[in-house]
Amino acid sequence: xxxxxxxxxxxxxxxxxxxxxxxxxxxxxxxxxxxxxxxxxxxxxxxxxxxxxxxxxxxxxxxxxxxxxxxxxxxxxxxxxxxxxxxxxxxxxxxxxxxxxxxxxxxxxxxxxxxxxxxxxxxxxxxxxxxxxxxxxxxxxxxxxxxxxxxxxxxxxxxxxxxxxxxxxxxxxxxxxxxxxxxxxxxxxxxxxxxxxxxxxxxxxxxxxxxxxxxxxxxxxxxxxxxxxxxxxxxxxxxxxxxxxxxxxxxxxxxxxxxxxxxxxxxxxxxxxxxxxxxxxxxxxxxxxxxxxxxxxxxxxxxxxxxxxxxxxxxxxxxxxxxxxxxxxxxxxxxxxxxxxxxxxxxxxxxxxxxxxxxxxxxxxxxxxxxxxxxxxxxxxxxxxxxxxxxxxxxxxxxxxxxxxxxxxxxxxxxxxxxxxxxxxxxxxxxxxxxxxxxxxxxxxxxxxxxxxx
Length: 454
Hints:
This protein is mainly alpha-helical. It folds into two domains: 1-132, Serine Threonine Protein Phosphatase 5, Tetratricopeptide repeat, CATH 1.25.40; 263-454. 70% of the residues lie in helices and 1% in strands. It has 24 helices and two strands. The protein has a two-stranded antiparallel sheet. It is globular.
């Protein structure tokens, strides 16, 4: 190792900084994955002091791209160019390859670069968290779990950053239905850091998918004392608490959480829009009058971001808000944007456009056309990323359409499909048979509403 190199907390070579600066850089990694406030401002100041630190520029580029907004691409490219002009190890050059591919929206090359890093340096926490986090929004749950399992044997509690590995591993296991393993890993992470938001997030998903609403409510209510000390991701944990309230039929409490914590003011942040729109839609399906002013807040945020968004799962949520506020021309602009990106090679953008077109058709009274379109697309919904809990919005939209049409055979079929998704591993065929036979007897809207709360 030459005089211009040091090692990070896991023994990986860093070029362009000394030991003291490496410790500061490690604090950025820790604070980012614990969702602490102020990381980007501190990172900007750090890079002014250490302009020759290539991985610092890559990390900044990753952070910008994680905003999933077209306006960030040029800024990320600037930091990539700075990194490329600096000395670097093979591992550091691979990080540059991953960032370059991300900017180019070349997901195959991006993932391949991260996988090469993890094959040779499995303790590269940055590569691991970026890869698994990106796979989440690309809809590849199976690969997310495989990447997590592929490095697991290299991690133990003596290695710096082990809780960050555990929380990501826990969430990956939850999304493929390995709930016991997910819960074990999440609880271990929380033992090390009780305020680890990603571990709390993994636990919330386990409890949601297993129908353990009371435990979920207790977990997140206890976390309410510190959630607002963290960055915008906190809103998603509040959203999970609102879903547990919703499941219990406490609709007023869910709306109160939306107004106080989830979407208190207009925000263009993609996750805020997802949280707000999906909660309002669910409540409306339960017959709750949510008020136009709440949809208007969401529409204002959507107008700022809908034609710059690159998380295509967000598009339907933006379209819902714009439709609810009567902005049909704005919806057409969103559809034009998504279709244009589709023609440029983004299959996910094209899928988002087709789902959004169906949602728009339903809002204009063409309910059968909307339902038929969504039914043909439903096996592709997962390609837009997000969790099973978030993707439940699509099921709710289809079931709502079938209800409007009075198509009870289709309503029952879709409810059964939803049961299978939300309970990946029923204890037995007999248990699944009991659940689905209950649905066979549904004949009223109230029965459907009750089922949709679980």
